[in-house]
Amino acid sequence: MLIGFDIGGTKIEVCVLDHDGRTQFKQRTPTPKSYDQFVETVVGLITQAEAQVGESCQVGIGLPGAVSPATGLIKNANCTFLNGHDLQADLAGASGKIIHIANDANCFALSEAVDGAGKDGAVVFGAILGTGCGGGLILNKQVWGGRNAIGGEWGHNPLPGYSAAKDGPVRPCYCGRDNCVEQFISGTGLEKSYTIKTDQKLAAPEVIALMREGDALATECYQQMIDQMGRSFAALMNILDPDVIVLGGGLSNVDELYRDLPQATLPYLFTDVADLCFKKAEFGDSSGIRGAAWLGR
Ligand SMILES: [Zn+2]
Hints:
Layout: E1 2-7, E2 11-17, E3 23-30, H1 35-53, E4 58-63, E5 66-67, E6 74-75, H2 87-95, E7 99-103, H3 104-115, E8 123-129, E9 133-139, E10 142-143, H4 164-167, H5 187-198, H6 204-212, H7 216-240, E11 244-248, H8 256-265, E12 278-280, H9 287-294
Parallel strand pairs: 1-4, 4-7, 8-11, 11-12
Antiparallel strand pairs: 1-2, 2-3, 5-6, 8-9, 9-10
Helix pairs in contact: 1-2, 3-9, 5-7, 6-7, 7-8
Bound molecules: zinc ion (ZN).
């Protein structure tokens, strides 16, 4: 069987999947505050999970961060005490097991590609449209991390075809660049667009609710975001042409996206006819941990 970990800033979740994808064990615990405690906690959970299912398991870990291909050390993790450590080696040493580690967006995409909304596709792109805009690329049911471990980091491309007239003022990104895709096509991006137009602060679900009621400015913000999504997905498709694009995160619950995205994307593609497949994630919030477990298969 397969153990998957989902590492968050406040909690660690662990699950055991059997080879048919059924959950055999699940547990969550608060995230420890130091690196040594973290290693100890994860090893303890592996022992507990294996005792519970009565067999030795493969172990995969999904975290918001990456293993640097240059050094093997964790970088960009939001649990900052992990950064700069050789987590793979330390966990392997302490547990005596092989440990697979991947970025949580890659785990999301893998979960959906193995037995979720992308299970029929050979090339699957998973896009998490939440607070930010993460992405993961899966080729033949394997994570494609890339030479520099940036495969799928499409949220930090510059928004294609940006113009102040269409997209409003320049939006700086925390990564140090301007006008990254995630500054526009995320829950946060939609909230910013609404504030720019109205000078009011509203959460993304409230903007969507207003749009559904026919509010003119909320509709304008939605239409602008759909066009920005169209440009962003077209840029991806002109390179990859994936079989399926699976959407996760808060915005993926906006059902209108699946109606509107194909026609918003087509004008920016290098083809006049296209079979575009946008699907909603099948496993929702469980995709990350399921994908982590599938890393070890
Ligand atoms: Zn950025």
